[in-house]
Amino acid sequence: MAQEITQEEIMAVFPAVAETMADALGCEVDQVTLKASLIEDLDAESIDFLDMVFRLERAFKVKIPRGKIVEDARGSLPEAEFEQKGVVTEAGLKRLREYLSEVPAERFKLPLKVADIPRLFTPETFCKMVVRAQRAGQPGG
Fold first, then answer.
1. What is the DSSP string of 47-112?
2. CA–CA distance, 13 with 84 (Å, rounded to integer)
3. What is the Cα–Cα distance from 60 to 122, expressed in whole angstroms?
């Protein structure tokens, strides 16, 4: 099991992540808080996610695989157990809540469509992606 990402690790990358996101979304950097919903609070669209990932890769000199969040959240859970007919299952929700531990519980609206998972993402979600990418890029990591 991958080691937990610490608050220190998140805070180490957050200022640069916030700046990158504010640039990508054309908002003020102080609007980008760790817990803000990128879609609901910062008006991000799916195209913005790609832009942010590219910018973060450049800023941190890391590789962030596309579609990685949902895949990582699913972990070892077979896709059929994670979602059915595009809706996240009970087991899938449990997984997502653990993986996206930074997301307030009330944001998990049921039934949750797989297509709506990005609505849950926060700047902290992206901080964690950067930290994971940094770890993956380290020899022996």
1. HHHHHHHHHHHHHHT----TTHHHHHHHTTS-HHHHEETTEE-HHHHHHHHHHTTTS-GGG--SSP
2. 35
3. 18
| Predicted structure pTM score | 0.90
Q: Which residue has the tokens 């039934």?
A: 111
Q: Where are the beta strands (DSSP E) in 5-129?
A: 83-84, 87-88
d(CA 76, CA 47): 28
Contact 99, 72 (CB under 8 A): yes
> Which of 1-5, 29-33, 102-106 is modeled with the greatest confidence?
29-33
CB 52 within 8 A of CB 20: yes
- Exposed (0-12), middle (13-18) or buried (19+): which is 90, by Cβ within 10 Å? exposed
Check residues 138 and 91 and name the one with the higher pLDDT. Answer: 91
